[in-house]
Amino acid sequence: MLIRRALPSGALFAALLALAAALLPAAPASAAVACGVGYTVTNQWPGGFGAAVTLTNLGDPVAGWRLTWTFATGQSITQMWNATPTQSGTAVTAASLPYNANPATGAAATFGFNGGWTTANPVPASFAMNGVTCTGSAPTSSPTPTRSPTPTPTPGGCTVQPVNPTPQARRLLCYLYSQYGNHILSGQQESTWIGGPDYENTSFRERLDGAAALQQLKNAGAAVIWRPFHEAGGAWFWWSKEGGAQYNRLWRYMYDYFTNTKGLNNLIWLHGYNGSPQSAFYPGKQYVDIGGADTYAGDGNYDPQKAMYDATRAIVGTTVPIALHENGPIPDPDRLQSTGARWVLFGTWHGNHLTVSNSADHLRKVYGHSYVVTRDELPNLR
After folding, report:
1. What residue stretches are annotated with the CBM2 domain (predicted)?
2. Annotated catalytic, 326?
3. Three-class SS of residue 306?
């Protein structure tokens, strides 16, 4: 089913998500380091396993963490999310990412990984954070550490750069990259569209200038996932009526005007196809941070939309996260995992598309599923 809609009044497009990401001060060099670690094997199969790790900061606030441990029987890390792995033989290091590098006293950072094993898979005997063994107890004496102070880390662990590289935008994009293939972020879209006979007659530049909320968000230190000219290739919207070359020219014009004229360098650019992605309607990786496609599959159809995902991936490449940027029925999380449909987020349209296309039982399953990230589970990206 194809839904044809106009866009919200006063602007040409919709922003999916805005997140403030103000910088936090670094911890003092003399901070006391203490920690506790929870390590759980969440799943195991012949030759492989999954694990979840919770690192609780029991000392002073830290400016970046590195958790180290040793695998006793030669296990190996094959994939990690919410941290960056390094392994040399049996020695493993998991390093923080920009969005979870500064846990306050009593706060926890969580990450997970998949790994391989051969003869056995015991839990590591001990862990250390920034060189200090995690005992599970808070410091009881002088806060002066007995080791050299840990330097404030550079924003390492994530090499991706958004096309508009503010620190806030980079943190947000790094978080999306960390979730890509490991979880799917939940979302819902609303519409406040009120049509009018002068809509198409208003000059394009005036409508660009009308996006004042983006400037306000930039001034507030927020990064925005920005989704202009959605359902690319669908001739029901005017921006696709004249073919791919004109569509790409329009996208690049907006990008140049927003970035170079308006200085809106806090945007994460999401390029969204309709249900039949066409390579002719792709402005190029230098103008796109996230790919995407959409479909309204029919009430109760919880298909993972793997074919549409693969078609989008064939155009945008293997290194760009891909969003299900609009949907009615929400794909079944178990089938997303089993088929490898690695959508990084979904955006369920409001009204009946949420409450009729999805049963109450399915909604409970989706929003309670460990693969789905809900609003309350988002990390602090400040």
Report:
1. 28-137
2. yes
3. helix
pLDDT value of residue 344: 96
Q: State residue 173's pLDDT score.
A: 87
pLDDT score of 212: 64
Residues of the chain with pLDDT under 70: 1-31, 140-157, 159, 164-165, 189-202, 212, 382
In the prediction, which pLDDT does 272 show?
A: 97
Q: Which pLDDT score is estimated for 140?
A: 64
Determine the pLDDT at residue 295.
94
Q: Which two tokens stand for residue 231?
A: 């359902």
DSSP 237: S
Asked if residue 5 lies in contact with residue 230, where contact means CB atoms within 8 angstroms, the answer is no
With contact defined as beta carbons under 8 Å apart, do 110 and 48 qualify? no
Query: What is the set of domains in the chain, with CATH numbers?
Result: 14-23+160-194+203-377 (3.20.20.80), 35-133 (2.60.40.290)
The pLDDT score that the predictor gives to residue 329 is 96
DSSP string, 161-216: --SS--HHHHHHHHHHHHHTTT-EE--EE-------TTTTTS-HHHHHHT-HHHHH
CB 347 within 8 A of CB 324: yes
Pair 43, 121: CB distance under 8 Å? no
In this structure, what are the phi and psi dihedrals at residue 167, rounded to the nearest 5 degrees?
Answer: -55, -40
The answer to whether the Cα torsion of 290, 296, 297, 300 is positive or negative is positive
Beta bridge partners of 116: 48, 76
Task: Give which of 49, 170, 179 is closest to 114, Cα–Cα.
Answer: 49
Write down the catalytic residue from 190, 200, 242, 326.
326
Q: What is the pLDDT of residue 156?
A: 45
Q: How far is CA 333 from CA 1, 142, 149, 277, 299, in A?
A: 22, 48, 43, 23, 17
Is residue 200 annotated as part of the catalytic site, yes or no? Answer: no
Q: 13: exposed, middle or buried (C-beta count within 10 Å: 0-12, 13-18, 19+)? A: middle
Query: What are the tokens at 364?
Result: 């409970």
